[in-house]
Design a protein that fits this description.
heterodimer; A: 226 residues; mainly alpha; MetI-like fold; B: 252 residues; D-Maltodextrin-Binding Protein, domain 2; five-stranded mixed beta sheet; 11 helices; 12 strands; MetI-like_sf (chain A)
Chain lengths: 226, 252
């Protein structure tokens, strides 16, 4: 295998980024999805649109605005600097922030669908049995929404693994810190190192196929719960 | 169905445009990112002198290589180096004998902040900055030249933890222009116009601190029958083109 240590570092970094992003997104995305699934507020439309934006925006747009807003003259950059954190571009933390925004719809939408499918009834029943809202969320909603959580986690993880444009714009290609697999592939292609490009790109292709296949099989085998 | 009269007019218009296109051709050019600034002026002069038009795509040289090898419709290639065109030539992708050096690139250490970079580059030794942007030295000739400069100044070790890499020279200047990196090694042509610095502060890196950045042009196989491709390479060697190229800080 012609992969170099820089390639393996990129693979490790990518897995780390995708794992952390997925965990954080499940924590952030669950309340958003829950609210979106149940609210009748006027704000539902705008919030929904904002969450879905990364689906339609090119990553260059997200990357460009992140570079500008997280930079020393941007609002986020001024905030992080005043907190003593420095600026986010060219750092792993910056990539995590970018990935959270970039992969948000892939986590929120399956969760929202799962919550919406549960409906009011189970919660009403739980309430008549004197379950508190928190209690019924953890003992009724979470188990019922489990397939939604699995789909959300898998899609969020896979989508972050495949992230390219955002990292390219704000990463700075620092080995072990911001140099992820997709950028590494781009580097190999530009440097005309096609053997390494093939190993990494082929691996990515296989990985993505297997993930989607697993989701598909799981969806088919799982009996519909009533 | 078209109305008969309209049909006649349409056919007439089509044949007229075909006649016109016999004389005035269009040439598809792949242009290295560092040379994007002079191209509009060159395109204008070229069009006035020959009647042909130039359609430019900007990008990284290595990326263009991959695209050309895989059938991209480029007819002329203005690369950022001389090794990629030489390789294309040896692989039979170009018109033999068309390759020549159209510009020799100059490197600048630049910051958008006035007075930040001194005229001798001492700011590098002071090492007070957080991030120094360079183009990827593996894929971009200006990035390679930047690492040679750092090595020659004995600063490679000292600045290594502060380096951030742009994929090409266009992205490198973006890192600096947005303020995320305080300074960076860019192509002089990006911050230089009509013989002077457009904004910020810069150190024009002496040419002896790095290998010459010879930028070669050549006609690709797709352009071998296009008279505009040949005309463009001839025009690039002309005095009006040379004046533009020098005005952006390149040498010839």
């Amino acid at each position: 295998m012609p992969l170099t240590s820089a390639d393996f570092a990129a693979i490790g970094l990518t897995l780390q980024l995708a794992t952390l992003t997925t965990v954080l997104l499940l924590l952030i995305g669950t309340p958003i999805a829950w609210w979106l699934a149940r609210t009748r507020s006027w704000w539902k439309g705008p919030v929904s649109a904002v969450v879905t934006l990364p689906l339609v925006l090119p990553p260059t747009v997200i990357g460009f605005y992140l570079l500008v807003t997280m930079g020393p003259h941007g609002p986020i950059g001024q905030l992080t600097q005043s907190l003593g954190l420095g600026t986010l571009p060219f750092s792993f933390a910056g990539l995590v922030v970018g990935s959270i925004i970039y992969s948000m719809p892939f986590v929120v939408q399956p969760l929202q669908n799962a919550f919406a499918a549960i409906g009011e009834r189970p919660l009403e029943v739980a309430a008549t049995l004197r379950a508190s809202p928190w209690d019924s969320f953890f003992t009724v909603v979470l188990p019922l929404a489990k397939p939604g959580f699995i789909t959300a986690a898998v899609l969020g993880f896979a989508h972050t693994i495949g992230e390219f444009g955002v990292v390219l714009m704000i990463g700075g290609n620092i080995p072990g810190k911001t140099s992820v697999v997709s950028v590494q592939i781009f580097n190999h292609v530009e440097a005309m190192e096609y053997a390494q490009a093939h190993w990494l790109a082929g691996g990515m292709l296989l990985f993505s196929f297997l993930i989607l296949l697993a989701l598909h099989l799981k969806g088919r085998m799982q009996p519909v719960r009533v | 169905m078209l109305h008969p009269l309209r049909h006649i007019l349409f056919t007439l218009g089509l044949s007229l445009s075909l006649i016109a296109s016999v004389q005035a051709e269009q040439v598809q050019v792949a242009v290295a990112a560092n040379f994007s600034a002079p191209i509009p002026a060159i395109a204008e002069g070229f069009e006035q002198a020959t009647g042909h038009t130039l359609v430019a795509a900007y990008g990284a040289t290595g990326q263009f290589y991959a695209q050309i090898k895989n059938g991209a419709p480029f007819e002329v290639f203005l690369a950022a180096d001389d090794s990629t065109p030489a390789r294309l030539e040896s692989e039979g992708e170009s018109v033999i004998g068309s390759r020549f050096t159209y510009a020799i690139g100059a490197l600048a250490l630049w910051s958008p902040q006035a007075g930040y970079v001194d005229a001798q580059g001492a700011v590098l030794k002071a090492n007070q900055f957080q991030h120094l942007a360079i183009a990827n030295p593996k894929t971009a000739p200006y990035g390679l030249a930047a690492t040679q400069v750092l090595a020659k100044l004995g600063l490679s070790q000292a600045v290594a933890p502060k380096l951030v890499e742009g994929q090409n020279i266009a992205q490198t200047i973006q890192f600096v222009a947005s303020g995320n990196a305080e300074l960076g090694f860019v192509a002089l042509s990006q911050v230089y116009k009509d013989g002077r610095l457009t904004n910020g502060s810069a150190w024009r890196v002496p040419a002896e601190l790095h290998e010459p950045i010879r930028q070669d042009a050549l006609i690709l196989k797709k352009g071998q029958n296009n008279p505009a491709a040949k005309a463009l390479l001839d025009y690039l060697r002309s005095e009006p083109a040379a004046t533009v190229i020098r005005a952006y800080g390149y040498q010839l």
